[in-house]
Amino acid sequence: MESLGPIILGGLGVLLVLAIAALPIIALVLLIRWFLRQERKDRWLEEQMAAVQPITEPDRDRMPSA
Fold this sequence. Notes:
Elements (H helix, E strand, L loop, with lengths): L4 H48 L14
């Protein structure tokens, strides 16, 4: 009966290669999630600022009252 050592080492090697190959994919997913979270924060901040300080129209855009 052959030794199981090389088989176990080969399996561990394959797992290590797969783990290393998955790292860029995981990093990309985390980066995309971070950008989306920043976008939500920016949108929320704009909504809060608009609620506190309403945007007024400039006088030149208003119709003259007759």
